[in-house]
């Protein structure tokens, strides 16, 4: 028989996730850079009055990049704990995780260009 949902446990999970988000932006320079880019894109979206579909694409891209940055940070921290000294396999793991963030950031830039360049050209 299924047990009822433990609300307190769920709330603790949200709190832990919130601490993770806080730590991500407090300690990780690249996460702060991505966040600043996010703010600029949101301001541009408001200024150019982008459509609901364009907002959906922008929000998805922002979430993907920030989530990838969080996963990359987690992998790097775990790898540093497991192997504090240099190890070629750990280097590959960390570089590959960073590559995932870069690939998503590139796709976000492409989506941004597709959405904003026509609007910028019409504005000028």
UniProtKB/TrEMBL annotation:
Keywords noted in UniProt: ATP-binding, Cell membrane, Kinase, Lipid biosynthesis, Lipid metabolism, Membrane, Nucleotide-binding, Phospholipid biosynthesis, Phospholipid metabolism, Transferase, Transmembrane, Transmembrane helix
Entry EC number(s): 2.7.1.107
Stored Gene3D superfamilies: 1.10.287.3610
Protein topology in the membrane: Multi-pass membrane protein
Transmembrane segments: 33-50, 56-75, 96-117
UniProt xrefs under CDD domains: UDPK_IM_like
Subcellular location: Cell membrane
Pfam families recorded: DAGK_prokar
GO molecular function, one term: ATP-dependent diacylglycerol kinase activity
Signal peptide location: none
Record-stated family: Belongs to the bacterial diacylglycerol kinase family.
PANTHER family, A to Z: DIACYLGLYCEROL KINASE (PTHR34299:SF1)
Annotated protein name in UniProt: Diacylglycerol kinase (ATP)
Source organism per UniProt: Dyadobacter arcticus
Taxonomic lineage: Bacteria, Pseudomonadati, Bacteroidota, Cytophagia, Cytophagales
């Amino acid at each position: 028989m299924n047990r009822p949902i433990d609300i307190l446990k769920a709330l603790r999970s949200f709190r832990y996730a919130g601490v993770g988000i806080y730590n991500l932006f407090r300690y990780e320079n690249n996460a702060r850079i991505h966040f600043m880019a996010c703010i600029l894109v949101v301001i541009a979206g408001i200024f150019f009055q982008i459509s609901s579909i364009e907002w959906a694409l922008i929000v998805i891209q922002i979430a993907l990049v920030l989530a990838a940055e969080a996963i990359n940070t987690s992998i790097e921290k775990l790898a540093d704990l497991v192997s504090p000294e240099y190890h070629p396999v750990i280097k590959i793991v960390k570089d590959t995780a960073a590559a995932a963030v870069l690939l998503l950031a590139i796709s976000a830039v492409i989506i941004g260009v597709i959405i904003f360049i026509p609007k910028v050209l019409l504005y000028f």
